[in-house]
Amino acid sequence: MTAGPTIAARLAIVGAGPRSAMLLERVVARRTPDDEPIEIVLIDPHPPGPGRIWRREQSPLLRLNSMARDVTVFTDDTCAIEGPIRPGPSLIEWLEQWRAGEHPDVDPGDASAEARALTADGFPTRRLHSHYLAWFLQRTIASAPHGTSVRWVQDTVVGVDLSAGARIRLASGDELDADAVVYALGHNARHPDGATVALLARAESERVTYVPPSFTADADLRSVEAGRDVIVRGMGLAAVDLVVLLAEGRGGRFVHSSEGLRYERSGDEPRLHLGSRRGVPYRSKVSSTLQGDPPALEALTDEVRDALVARPGLLDFETDVWPLLATELLIGHYRELFTGHPERVRGRWTEFRDIILRYRWDATELHDAAVAQVPDPADRFDVDELDRPLAGLPASDADTVHARVRAHIVRDLGLRTRQEHSPAQGVFLAALLSFMSIAEIPAERWNVRSRIEGLARLHTFFSYVASGPPPQRLEELLALADAGVVRFLGPDVTVDIAGGAVIARTRSGEVRADALVDAWLPEADAAASENPALRELADVHGTVLHLADGDRRVSVGRVLVDTDGRVVRPDGTAHDTLFAIGPFTSRPEAGAFTRPRSNALSFRSTDRVAATVLDALARVHAG
Questions:
Q1: 333/390 Cα distance (integer angstroms)
Q2: Three-state SS sequence of 451-487
Q3: pLDDT digits (tens, 9 = 90+) for 444-465
Q4: Do residues 384 and 461 make contact, with C-beta atoms less than 8 angstroms apart?
Q5: Model pTM greater than 0.90?
Q6: What is 121-179 written as a DSSP string?
Q7: What local confidence, expressed as pLDDT, does residue 544 receive?
Q8: pLDDT higher than 50, residue 413
Q9: Rounded-to-integer distance, Cα 73 and Cα 592, Å
Q10: What residues pair up with 159 in beta bridges, in sequence order?
Q11: CA distance 408 to 65
């Protein structure tokens, strides 16, 4: 770590994972040797750079759901930020540099074979990614100008006393003084909500196993016994990781043959019955590339969004924004179909685009135009079908429902991995650009329904469409289904615990099991966090976001911050030297890292917060 002259001000960053590292990079980028000396202290029990979520010490079976070419922590010339642009390699570019001998101090250790073999369209393991994040942090520290020192304190913050400056209390009993504090934590465990508490109590009284929502790599799965039936609620990324750990992680193996991928059981696997609200896994990552016109927003443009924000009254996600988002998805699909595969359509793109923009996204006129100009039904796009592909599934026997879900996965893999279906890439990019645009809408402009339900729907929809698992994982899921390790329950599954069993009710009847696993990340909630520093932030220093819903106030559980990341006090004023970024705040979640050349929200957010933090430290020095 770097050393410097006498310290004029000290910044403490609570957390040292990628979100913290990206903020540190923005602070360092804005510093010059002529600035007054500062010390920056990163406080985290886990290794700085990767932090807890991306730490090296976890199963090598767990992977990112992003391709190596789509991961970066460096700004580039697409970033609309005021601070300096400091470009650097994406994950795959960094690996290529390492292979060429440019990073002799990097030792991937157990991940060396993967580091040598990974391709741009490959999905890296979390443990390999941890080396990239650690290197990024070390490079950032090494680039700090004279007068900027950085050190890591391997400890846990349990509280901050603001009565005189900021005195930080650590789990070890030590204390640190700081002039400004930034909470830069990612997902933390939280105390169970009411529904989870009730299930835990029922599971204990009925003597069945229940694994509540958690970060899958940290979940205790030893109680999930081999050969037992297990209901798994959730079919997102956490559920995919769970299946990996309970199958291949218990000694089974996948074998490629002329007939495709098959799974060979070890005998230590449980029988997993998977269901969720949609009843299908998150959509596969798209591996095709655009071959038509480049993406651009046409309905949810900056001008349209700014006009919405400026008009009187609060915005409603369902009525004001969802129709624009749905239109953008249609445009993303059909732009690529018409301009990238013109032999499969009748007419010109400009004419069909005007039709899309003329009618509401679900209008009969628009459907009829698609039928007339797109001869093959497989080339047509339906927003509702994308969102709820099994919505029209009738009540049927369990084997039929299982087969329908399996057929959906096979079709989804084909649509999202074959170049002839590159319109799926158009939909993905439309979703990405739309999500970034919507994130620019200030939090206070949304009505209560949107803050409680609409934005949550947006986040889950985006994750389902654009942040799904690698295709390999869905191929493995199919092989596990064929091997009898996985059964698909379909949509709208409900569960109960009674009579010494877990009972899942589905459209095909009931399934009784010995255990229940809720396979999703718990909702970010600072007030209910197991992290004592976050709870204190919510209960003492800040304001937990509450929304008026008629005569009652609904807690959203997130700490209110202003646009520059300053924590808002209970009296409505903003702290001058207390900041927070991350999923536990009222600002849109920006993610811990991002795609290259996407003007990502994460860079815009951290750059803005870094500027405000440095201004605060300058005022401290000025006295």
A1: 21
A2: HHHHHHHHHHHHHHHHCCCCHHHHHHHHHHHHCCCEE
A3: 898 888 887 888 899 999 999 9
A4: no
A5: yes
A6: TS--BHHHHHHHHHHHHHHHHHTPPTTEEEEEE-S-EEEEE-SSSEEEEETTS-EEEES
A7: 85
A8: yes
A9: 8
A10: 169
A11: 20
CA angle 254, 220, 45 (to 5 degrees): 110
| Cα 4 → chain centroid | 37
Chain length of the chain: 623
- According to DSSP, the residues that pair with 260 across neighbouring strands are 257
Taking only the tens place, the pLDDT of each residue in 356-394 is 999 999 999 999 999 999 999 999 999 999 999 998 888
DSSP per-residue string spanning 495-562: EEEETTEEEEEETTEEEEESEEEE-SPPPP-GGGBS-HHHHHIIIIIS-EEEEEETTEEEEEEEE-B-
Q: Say how far apart CA 159 and CA 149 lie, in whole Å.
A: 24
What stretch of H or E contains 20?
A: helix 18-29
- 606 HSE (CA, 13 A, CB side): 33
Contact 401, 508 (CB under 8 A): yes
Predicted local confidence at residue 547, as pLDDT = 58
Query: CA distances (Å), 241 to each of 214, 221, 256, 417, 520, in order?
Result: 12, 12, 21, 21, 10
Whole-angstrom Cα distance, residue 421 to residue 401?
A: 26
Tokens read off for 44: 């985290």
Which residue type does 366 have? L
| Residue the block writes with tokens 């002799």 | 104
Closest C-alpha among 88, 73, 74, 128 to residue 106: 128
Between the CA of residue 143 and those of 37, 153, 371, what are the distances in Å?
15, 20, 58
Interhelix angle 302-310/423-438, rounded to 10 degrees, is: 30
CB 282 within 8 A of CB 463: yes
Structure tokens at 329: 């998805």
The Cα-based distances of 189 to 348, 521, 525, 526 in angstroms read: 52, 9, 9, 10
Q: What residues contact residue 207 under an 8 Å CB cut-off, 6+ apart?
A: 500
**Distances from the Cα of 225 to the Cαs of 70, 213, 220, 316, 471, in angstroms?**
37, 18, 12, 46, 28
User: Which tokens hold the place of 511?
Assistant: 């399934």
Please name every residue paired with 449 in a beta bridge, in sequence order, or none if there are none. none
d(C-alpha 241, C-alpha 503), whole Å: 23
Q: Which amino acid is at 529?
A: S
104, amino acid identity: P
Two structure tokens written together for 173? 């009993």
In terms of DSSP bridges, do strands 209-211 and 486-491 run parallel, antiparallel, or are they unpaired? unpaired
- Cα–Cα distances (Å) from 16 to 12, 24, 40, 51, 195, in that order, read 10, 9, 11, 6, 32
Could you tell me if 603 and 87 are in contact, meaning their C-beta atoms sit under 8 angstroms apart? no
Q: What share of the chain is helix, strand, coil (3-state, %, to 5)?
A: 40, 20, 40
Q: What is the pLDDT of residue 2?
A: 46
Among candidate residues 325, 123, 128, the one with its CA nearest the CA of residue 237: 123
CA torsion through residues 114, 117, 123, 128, sign: positive
606 with 22: CB under 8 angstroms? Answer: yes
The amino acid at 224: V
Write the Ramachandran bin of 279: left for phi over 0, alpha for psi from -120 to 50, otherwise beta.
left
61 CB neighbour count, 10 Å cutoff:
15
Q: Tell me: the pLDDT tens digits for 481-497?
A: 999 999 999 999 999 99
- Following CA atoms 146, 147, 153, 158 in sequence, which dihedral angle do they give, to the nearest 10 degrees? -150
| Integer CA distances (angstroms), 564 to 15, 413, 587, in order | 19, 41, 10
